[in-house]
Amino acid sequence: MRNESSGPSRRTDTREKIIEAAASLIPELGWGDVSSRRVAERAGVNTGVIHYHVGSIGELRRIAAVGKIRTFFLGRIDEALSQEDPAVAVEVMLRALAANDPRDPELLLLYESLVAASRDDQLRAEIAALLAELRQRLCDWFAARGVAHPLTVAVTLTAAIDGYLLQRSLDPSVEPGPLIDGLVALVRQQVAADGS
User: Fold this and answer.
1) What is the pLDDT of residues 38-85, one digit of tens each?
2) CB atoms within 10 A of CB 7
3) Residues contacting residue 195 through CB under 8 Å, at least 6 positions apart
4) Torsions phi, psi of 120, nearest 5?
5) Residue 174 — φ and ψ, nearest 5°?
C-alpha cells in the first residue's frame, strides 16, 4: 500500500516551503548569511531535505530570488497592462512599484540579489533573462497599442524603474511624481508620433 503523504504533491509542498523560507531570509539576513541550517530551521525541515529538493544553498538562493523578482515585477506589470491606454498603463505600473515601502522585504531581496549577481554569473544570467523578458513583453505590448518606438519606450521604462527603486532605497523621500510625469509624457509623445 502506497503512502500518500510521500507523493508528488507533498514533495512539491516541501520544495515550495524551502524556497519560501530562503526567500524570506535573504532580505532579513543578507545573501551570504542564508545557510542550509537557517533555511531548514525556518522551513521546519531537516537540512538533508534541502539538498534533496534543491541541491546546493547557492542554487536555492538563486531559485528563491529569481522567483520572487519575477513575481514582484510581472505581477505589477500584468495589472498595468490590463489598461488600454499606454500612458495610463505606465502610470499604473509606476504607482504600483512606488507603493512599496523602500524597506519592504521584496525590494530588499531585489537589492541583495543584484549585489550578489555581480559575483555569481548564473544569477546574473537568470536576472538578465528575466529583465529581457520583461522588456520584450513591454515592447510587444507598446507596439500593439501604436507606440512609435516601442523598444525605446520599454528600455527607458525598465531602466527608469530600476533607477527609481535604487534611489528610493537610499532616500525614501524620493517621490515618484516627477518620474511618472516624465515617462507618461514620453509615451504620449510616442503614441502621437505613430498617429501622425
Assistant:
1) 999 999 999 988 988 988 999 999 999 999 999 988 888 888 999 999
2) 10
3) 146
4) -125, 105
5) -65, 120
